[in-house]
Amino acid sequence: MTARILRPLLASYGGGHVQIVAALVRALAARGDSPEVIGFTTAHAELRRQGIAAQPVSALLDPAEDAEWLALAEEFTGAATHPDIPPEETCAYFALGLRDLAHDLGREAALARVRETGRTAFEPVGVMRRHLRRTRPDIVITTTSPRFECALQKAARLEGIPGLAVGDLFLVKDRAWILQEGYAPHLAVLSGEVARALVADGFPESGIRVTGNPAFDRLAPGSGDAARRAALRARLGLADRTVILFPAPGAQMSMIGRPFLELADVVAALEDFCRADPRHAYLIRQHPNRPMALPEGVRHGMLDDGGLLGPEDAILVSDIVCVEASTMGLQAALTGKPVICVGFADYLLYPGFGLGQAASDMDEAMGILRAGQADAAPEFDMPPLGDATSNVLAYVDDILSRHADKVLPNQTDGEPK
């Protein structure tokens, strides 16, 4: 632990990334540090739900300097896209992105770019430099998302502030910006294999530490797990069954343009399998972004709409996990559960790391189950579950210790925009 109170800035987008930041913020506050937290898009509401006093993206605005951009951003803030994102936050997000883009391209070209590509056009380094010059945190900590997170890391480097990016999974697609010049000089990653792959692609080995993922610390085995599993399974009427968990995706279409399975087809395959072998039952876990209902006539399974079990308990009660594109598949594999990835093994990537088996469709997945070939993953080159948050904080302290007598050169390109 460092001798003085630290003032780190942490920021992320939502999904699994915000859970990393939430774990780190709680640990920093618990040891007496004073973190500043910014939640981009859905992350702000999620952090608030967890009792973390995060700021929204609008906290980055300067009312006087950004009035023009707020007016222009109204063009892009029509129908609400998510219940966790108020229209005024969408307007602030586009205003800040436009402000920087117009500095680089000119106003009309920036507007044309955003009309064509949307928010993917944004990387507001100037906006982030402006905020960092006002607040001067000791270190900037983000996850490895693009756009605003990437801009914040680049801004920190330009301002001579240490930056640490904390990876969630395998960082394959993320390498497009992780390996850019000016990105965070320090990276915390899930496993030794991820670290070796990044070094092979050009990231300095001295800047990588294998820490695990802080969001997965809640999966660490506990002394009461067996009793809790038995109690939950008894409450659900599953005490004597082999339970197949299917975490449903949050949309009809994946981010790579490939449609997810229809719920009716998933249920039909699981019903057929469990009818033939009634020692099995299935549990479909609804994604919070996509309400659903089971078809009529279900006999061997149930739906958890989020009111029965949390994600960790859903994994705890299950014996096998079939998944399309959910991080819960990876979480289950890391806890030693057999995992079958249906249709998206090439997108999820973790079957390629030995953390799950691949099936092209539900028929092939059920064939693996019928053959008794659903096997748990071998040992994975990752720190023990439960240690990641403390590992990342130890890395933060080491980074700041190394920077105590060394200041990064301010690679200034003029005043921040």
Question: What is the compact description of this entry?
Answer:
The chain is α/β, with parallel strands linked by helices and 417 residues long. The protein has helices at 16-30, 43-49, 67-73, 87-105, 107-117, 125-135, 148-158, 175-178, 192-200, 225-235, 263-276, 311-317, 327-334, 345-348, 362-370, 388-403; strands at 8-12, 36-39, 139-143, 163-166, 186-189, 208-210, 242-247, 280-285, 301-304, 320-323, 339-342, 357-359.
Give a description of the structure.
The radius of gyration is 23 Å and the shape is globular. It has 16 helices and 12 strands. The chain has 417 residues and is an alpha/beta fold. The chain has a 6-stranded parallel sheet, with helices on both faces. It has a 6-stranded parallel sheet with strand order 9-8-7-10-11-12, sandwiched between helices. α1 packs across α16, α3 (67-73) crosses α4 and α11 runs parallel beside α15. The model is unreliable at 408-412 (pLDDT under 50). It comes from Fuscovulum ytuae. This is UDP-N-acetylglucosamine 2-epimerase domain-containing protein.
